Amino acid sequence: xxxxxxxxxxxxxxxxxxxxxxxxxxxxxxxxxxxxxxxxxxxxxxxxxxxxxxxxxxxxxxxxxxxxxxxxxxxxxxxxxxxxxxxxxxxxxxxxxxxxxxxxxxxxxxxxxxxxxxxxxxxxxxxxxxxxxxxxxxxxxxxxxxxxxxxxxxxxxxxxxxxxxxxxxxxxxxxxxxxxxxxxxxxxxxxxxxxxxxxxxxxxxxxxxxxxxxxxxxxxxxxxxxxxxxxxxxxxxxxxxx
Length: 242
What we know:
Elements: H1 5-18, E1 34-39, E2 44-50, E3 53-59, H2 63-67, H3 77-87, E4 93-103, E5 116-119, H4 122-130, H5 134-139, E6 147-153, E7 159-166, E8 172-179, H6 188-202, E9 206-212, H7 216-225, E10 228-238
Parallel strand pairs: 1-3, 8-9
Antiparallel strand pairs: 2-3, 2-10, 4-9, 4-10, 5-6, 6-7, 7-8
């Protein structure tokens, strides 16, 4: 499944606005750009890759160092960590990892089940997160829920899977999926994901799945659902006292 050009254009517009660059700056039909933009009121350095475009956002005092790096294609967080450490500007900095940015612009088919009940109460999804390992639960934490779906089986009192999305910018729907660890491999996460994706698309949003490097199960699920890799986002945390 290939994303339509219009979908890619909307993705580029959303990220351009997120990083405060011109709306047309990251469009897929534009020659590759390498931009450096200041961040205000934050203690992070971020590197966005979208197609062949790169945008580096950092506090103003770090931008000359980053612009002057011999290799300005920052594809490895270890390289950026080393650069910041050796400069003396950031003696304390750690990587928060690299998120793969994946997208979907078509719903996928799924067979309804008479044995599954669906709740749209966020408290039910919160209950599911409490019953899952902390790493899984933290990976499904969003700033808020615009919509969520939690599945209950007719043989289980507790929730078995869930999915939801958050669309703070009104263009992309950050989508997340969670299944109870003892009930994985039965298609429950896929079922919940189908509900969230279909709802987001019906609202005119583009489902986005951010997958942290090393989350092999999440990556496998996203790939099976048809999410397509478009870019990546690297985040590094500076010492809060700086």
